[in-house]
Amino acid sequence: MSKFWSPLAASLIPYVPGEQPKDQTYVKLNTNENPYPPSPLVLNAIKDAANGDLRLYPDPTCSALAEKAAAYYGVQPNQVFIGNGSDEILAFAFAAFFSPSNRPILFPDITYSFYKVYAALYGIPYKTVPLDEEFRVPLDAFDEPNGGIVLPNPNAPTARYIETERFRGVLDWNSDSVMILDEAYIDFGGKSGVELVAEFPNLLVVHTLSKSRSLAGLRVGVAIGHPDLIEGLNRVKNSFNSYTIDRLALAGAAAAFDDRAYFEETTRKVIATRERTDAGLKQLGFRVIDSSANFLFAEHPDHPAAGIFQGLKQRGVLVRYFNQPRIDNFIRISIGTDAEMDTFLRTLEDVLRQDGGSAEA
Ligand SMILES: *Cc1c(COP(=O)(O)O)cnc(C)c1O
């Protein structure tokens, strides 16, 4: 607490990102980063952009990148918004489409924890929709008057995917409110809802280059929606900061869309490693939720997750543990390289053996 904080700053409960520890080298499977480096085209484009032009402001409209992204998604450039990571897009979207004086917005009870944080920041009321026992999203429950909807697909941290076609009903019922579809993990096996954008002016689809394009460190996200929604995002952006994407990020992100072959190859590898890891976990007695993402969500019937998390960490393997109701017996494991996942499974076996099935680890 500080007397200098505004009542708003004092009231916030900020989001806590996964650790980026500096104390030792870990097999780092805790923040859903891609284990493969970005495409060589991306690195070259960034190197080329590192020149005297950095004295100049970047293009505030990101037009070259927006055109690339539009071509990739099969939409018009005025249906594309570029953000400094999809987190920034979400922050702008909450301000642009949701309101403190409107009905509560709806999102699942188990989901990306940033949604609550943005709602609190802007004073937007929200109501959570409980997932079923299998962590499926009951889409019928979104059929109630609301001030907006936020759904990640696949969901985080459960990794579960909803068939994109099933959103038609929700979008129809909620034609007076905006639905944000957060597709951070869609490239790992799902079908994007971008194709619904032409039909539903209330749908904003949000993508990130952080996961499937190995660019978490560059900070670029893309939103696709009706031009009116994009204009709403631009109104908010230009009331904060007109230059959210720097010259290096603009160059690197454009090159990422150029190298489709590399993107498809690394994504395919992550999916194959996920399936191997899923089988390995089941062999060790874990219950693993079906994943369409670059991570797995798993629990063991005899070994508490908190102990597994600690045991892995002591042995140099970092996964994510959420000490939250309903999911406090699960660990979330980001998919690394095959070698990293072999180390993970071997270490995990050791942890389970030492634990001996007791509550203590
Ligand atoms: C990782 C993630 C994001 C944020 O991605 P950035 O583009 O790196 O800001 C947004 N939503 C979900 C569900 C995520 O998992």
Automatic annotation (TrEMBL):
Gene Ontology MF, one: pyridoxal phosphate binding
Transmembrane segments: none
Domain annotation Aminotransferase class I/classII large: ranges: 26-347
Recorded catalytic activity of this chain's protein: L-histidinol phosphate + 2-oxoglutarate = 3-(imidazol-4-yl)-2-oxopropyl phosphate + L-glutamate
PROSITE patterns registered for this protein in UniProt: AA_TRANSFER_CLASS_2
EC number(s) stated in the UniProt entry for this protein: 2.6.1.9
Modified residues (N6-(pyridoxal phosphate)lysine): K211
Record's keyword terms, sorted: Amino-acid biosynthesis, Aminotransferase, Histidine biosynthesis, Pyridoxal phosphate, Transferase
Any one Gene Ontology BP term: L-histidine biosynthetic process
Taxonomic superkingdom: Bacteria
Cofactor(s) required, per the database record: pyridoxal 5'-phosphate
NCBIfam families: hisC
Family: Belongs to the class-II pyridoxal-phosphate-dependent aminotransferase family. Histidinol-phosphate aminotransferase subfamily.
Protein name stated in the entry: Histidinol-phosphate aminotransferase
Biological source species: Cohnella candidum
Source lineage: Bacteria, Bacillati, Bacillota, Bacilli, Bacillales
Gene it is expressed from: hisC
